Amino acid sequence: MSANSSTTEGSSLSSRRFTPLSVLNGAVSALAIVFTLYTIYYAYSLMFVRLRYSNIFLGLGLALYYLDVARNHYDDSDTDTPELDGEPRSSVVDTGSITKLSRIKSAYARIDPLIAILFAGVALTATAYVEYHFTRLEQDVHLLGHTQIDLYVGVALIVLVIDATRRAFGNIIASVAVGSIIYAHSYIGPNLPGVFRHTGFDWTRISRQGAIELTGVYHQTLMGIGSTWVAIFIIFAGIAKAYGLMDFVLEVGRELGKALRTGVVQIAVIASMIMGSITGSAAANTATTGSFTIPMLKDQGVDDDFAASIEAVASAGGQMLPPVMGVAAFLMADLLGVSYVNIIQAGIIPAALFYFSVGIGLHFAVLKYGWTSPNTGSFDFRMLLGGIHFAIPLGVLLVTLVYLRYTPLTAGLYTIITIFVVGSLKVIYTGARDSELDGETIEKLGKQALLGLRTGGLEMAPLVGVLAAMGVIIEMVTFTGLSTRVSTTIIGMGGGQLLVVLLLAMIASIMFGLGMPTPAAYILVVVLVAPGVIEMGVPEVTTHMFVFYFAMLSAITPPVAISVAIGSRIAGSSFMGSCVQALRLGAPGFVIPFAFVTNNSLIYWSQATLVAFPAVLAGTVGFIVATIGFDGARDLSYPIRGIYVIAAFGAMFGSVAHIGVQIAASVAIIGALVHARVIVGYDIDESNMESPTTD
Questions:
Q1: Fewest 10 Å CB contacts: which of 223, 224, 329, 592?
Q2: Is residue 36 part of a domain?
């Protein structure tokens, strides 16, 4: 080989090694690992006050997210045949058909990665500035005042978190953040009518309240809890995902689908429920688990609209499932000043009611429309051995949280340590079993651990911006007095009638929750809506659960219905058709919050719970039978469906009149369903069951 060719080959190899994508990949991996280790080390050491820790956490998280955005731009682009709107750019330019809008899009697409890298640098610089001047900003600034640079840094932080929110979660919540700042400005506030009028802030006050006074972006609950309790669980979820937990859940689902007449339908719900509880975003969960479950549902014969709605409802409901509740459980415990275990307890029965109703509804829908799956075999329990090691970290989590009553931060730390240990032992065991316990096994251990650290950091990074942006929104809403005036208005419009106030609170919670991830939706509705309900005498935990449920259900409520929109894109279905089916499946969810206001023992457990829970459960079943229009044996006429609705309301709210009404209604629903199955002679467990017939 000649010297020239050798030089050319070496130059080519060097250019391949040091492409923008390879450099960004390395930077993202390194920063993600540092971000995760920083969070874990703080959980271990509590090295300084949480506010100071949160600032560094903010800088690392924002920088990681922006670098990942830039990396994805380069990763998705084809440098050989770059495309614009699906066509090769060269051909578009040659024909002269490129529009002005397309040119703008193309130019923005080229510079956006550079903007993202610049913003990553600004995030690190701004938070480094706050860290360097932390003592002055926390203590001395109240006497000495802020410098001009302080104010500029405050503005930069606000801009960064709003832009990061826009990129990660879309324009809706970013627009709310921008709107809250505009609303707070002195040019706007004094000129607004009625309940919205206020004196207003100038830009310096917005910078101070929004960030540099270590409020707003650094909100004690949102960023404080988000950077500790929330972060440690999201990171755990990412590490577990890297060690194969998600793959194991899906494998179990496929195996169960072979043995169940309903096939993968119920398994899709369970998988989405489990992952949805951890992700903190119904939309994100729909996108991730839906990419697996929706094609599986369609392969079984489930209609496109229904497949999309199943995933959307399950993902939205996953946000309500303890122990994480879409990370809202941690925020709720801090805001209410109660034990985290109390929040888990309060959320168990409402979540069980919702998921049991959805499960029954899906079972009846599968039977009604003939989407049953032929039994191709029995469940192979031996496959559970492949993931039995995941039970150990989950057991550690439950013991440390529930029995030992450790803080979520400490419990999360022990759980992460445990999953690293059991994951490593699994790799060692596999290597020993295959007689390959050598240097390659050690290398695999290291790669697996680094992958877990990297995945954990990347899972948390998108949430950093939205938590900080929500802090800005809450600061603007609180200091302008809007939250107090909204609550007063709701009470005034309700005319002192609890039912009317609850209905208004429901509408407001759905509206404020549209398109938002779980932490953002919950915090916004709690600040704006919850005080009015509490003033009507509803207990605090019940009120928080009430508004939280409706904020979550906004994910399946038109016109936004963000989870349905994502699910329908994956399924290739009609958005409005999927919305209709999602509302049918999720219908009991819109009634359950009223039920636990009426039957408060569902939240605060007592002896009355022994009656209230089965009665309300029967009511939810009756309600879903009415919305699906099938009772396990036959299609139901509209008059019969109306009777089921009346009985369902009696079972759920009959205690207002007399406990006997509640019991009688629940017994009637159960009796009717037993009659449909036994007296009509229709056994839904028979393997040779034919398609259901109408009345």
A1: 224
A2: no
Residue 466's closest CA among 164, 60, 61, 178? 164
What's the burial of 579, exposed, middle or buried (CB within 10 Å: 0-12/13-18/19+)?
Answer: buried
Residue 58 corresponds to which tokens in the numbers above?
A: 């903010």
pLDDT of 78: 45
pLDDT digits (tens, 9 = 90+) for 467-500: 899 899 889 988 888 878 887 888 888 887 889 9
Total count of domains within the chain: 1
Which value, to the nearest 10 degrees, does the dihedral of the CA atoms of residues 16, 18, 22, 23 take? -170
pLDDT for 64-77, tens place per residue? 999 999 999 877 65
The DSSP H or E segment spanning 249 is helix 245-259
3-state secondary structure of 422: helix
Q: What is the pTM of this model?
A: 0.79
DSSP string, 52-115: HHHHHHHHHHHHHHHHHHHHHHHHH--SSS-EETTEEHHHHHHHT---HHHHHHHHHHHHHHHH
pLDDT above 80 (res 268): no
- 617 touches 356 (CB < 8 A): yes
- What does the alpha-carbon distance between residue 605 and residue 378 come to, in Å, rounded to a whole number? 39
In order of 189, 412, 481, the CA distances from 199 in angstroms are 6, 44, 10
Least trusted range by pLDDT, from 6-15, 95-104, 300-309: 6-15
Ramachandran category for residue 537: left, alpha or beta (phi over 0 → left; psi -120 to 50 → alpha)? left
pLDDT per residue as tens digits for the range 415-438? 999 999 998 888 787 766 666 656
Residue 635 in 3-state DSSP? strand
Query: For the chain, what percent of residues have pLDDT higher than 70?
Result: 86
To which residue do tokens 């019940």 refer? Answer: 542
Task: Identify the pLDDT of residue 2.
Answer: 46
Q: Is the pLDDT at 337 greater than 70, yes or no?
A: yes
**Is 72 contained in some domain?**
no
Output the pLDDT for position 481.
86
- Comparison of pLDDT for 515 and 659, the residue scoring more: 659
Helix spans in 480-539 (H): 482-494, 498-513, 518-528, 530-534
What's the distance, CA 671 to chain centroid? 38
Token digits of residue 283: 């939309």
Residue type, 325: M
Residue 38: per-residue pLDDT: 97
DSSP state of 634: B
Domain-embedded: residue 549: no
Buried b (16+ CB within 10 A) or exposed e, 616-650: bbbbbbbbbbbbbbbbbbbebeeebbebbbebbbb
CA distance 353 to 358: 9
Q: Which domain holds residue 630?
A: 608-695
Secondary structure (DSSP) of 332-399: HHHHHT--HHHHHHHHHHHHHHHHHHHHHHHHHHHHHHT----------GGGGGGGGGGHHHHHHHHI
The set of residues, in sequence order, having a beta carbon less than 8 Å from that of 350 and lying 6+ positions away, is 320, 545, 549, 592, 593, 596, 602, 603
> Residue 360: is it exposed, middle or buried by C-beta count within 10 angstroms (0-12/13-18/19+)?
buried
* Range ranked top by mean pLDDT from 189-203, 281-295, 431-445: 189-203
What per-residue confidence (pLDDT) applies to 155?
Answer: 96
Asked if pLDDT for residue 93 goes beyond 70, the answer is: no
- pLDDT over 60 at 92, yes or no: no
Query: Rounded to a whole number, what is the largest CA-CA distance in the chain?
Result: 97
Average pLDDT over all residues of the chain = 83
Task: Return the DSSP state at 630.
Answer: B
Residue 169 lies in a domain: no
Neighbouring residues of 356: CB distance < 8 A, sequence distance ≥ 6: 617, 620, 621
